[in-house]
Amino acid sequence: MASSVNPTVRRRRLGQELRKLRELKGMTAEEVAERLLVSQSKISRLENGRRSISQRDVRDLCGVYGVEDHRIVDSLMQMAKESRQQGWWHAFGDIPYSVYIGLETDAASLRVYEASLVPGLLQTPNYASAVTEGSWPEATGADIERRVQVRMRRQERITDPENPLRLWAVIDESALRRIVGSREIMAEQMRQLVQFSMEPHITVQVLPYDVGAHPGMYGKFSILEFNDPQDASTVYLEGITSDLYLEKPNDVQTYSVMYEHLRMQALNADHSRQFIDRVAEEWAAEI
């Protein structure tokens, strides 16, 4: 569930405010870095919310920008304090995609395209465990269990009866056909996918093989949108060793157009549900 203070979102908003102050001062990130004897990359990471911001950072930056209004400084200092609090996901230790989890926790809607597996928010525990074990060969049993617990906790966003995350998932047919774990696990996963697709706030579409080439062939991506206009829509690209977050309007627009093409090429929601149901029967018949 979204907490009252989401540290990831606080960090993003604080970074946006600091960028505005720098731009009002007419300074480049490089000039600020030179004044503070730090790297330019640090200033960039502070502004894009990818680095933890201390109250000392805020104090130093406000000094460079000549901010004399104590109310502004105090407000930014408070945001810095809140941004360093821990979200629910920190209880599970070092999670490599913790920034994404923070954004997902606060998002109002999520559009996701998956090319080779069922989206994490729609996975069963058994499927999630098999995916983690297969994609992370060095993982211990404890590592796998921790990842599965995080994934199941994330699903609270789409099962929240009061404020569920609006989810739209376009899934390539290959994700339904690739055996993950066992045929029993696949049959169970397909049945759960059908059940989730019947929820009014969840739309699932299958992109069948016979559509041929399509915009999603470059790989999976997610588009997060937020209720607060201060929070820019974000495209999330998951990587092996690092992730990429795109917030520039042109980038978000490019991926949004790609998603619309995928949505139009995919089977509609009803036909997709029927398709998944048939695949579930096929997996069950092979048990």
From TrEMBL:
<dbReference type="Pfam" id="PF13560">
    <property type="entry name" value="HTH_31"/>
</dbReference>
<dbReference type="InterPro" id="IPR043917">
    <property type="entry name" value="DUF5753"/>
</dbReference>
<dbReference type="InterPro" id="IPR001387">
    <property type="entry name" value="Cro/C1-type_HTH"/>
</dbReference>
<dbReference type="GO" id="GO:0003677">
    <property type="term" value="F:DNA binding"/>
</dbReference>
<dbReference type="Pfam" id="PF19054">
    <property type="entry name" value="DUF5753"/>
</dbReference>
<dbReference type="InterPro" id="IPR010982">
    <property type="entry name" value="Lambda_DNA-bd_dom_sf"/>
</dbReference>
<feature type="domain" description="HTH cro/C1-type">
    <location>
        <begin position="18"/>
        <end position="73"/>
    </location>
</feature>
<protein>
    <submittedName>
        <fullName>Helix-turn-helix domain-containing protein</fullName>
    </submittedName>
</protein>
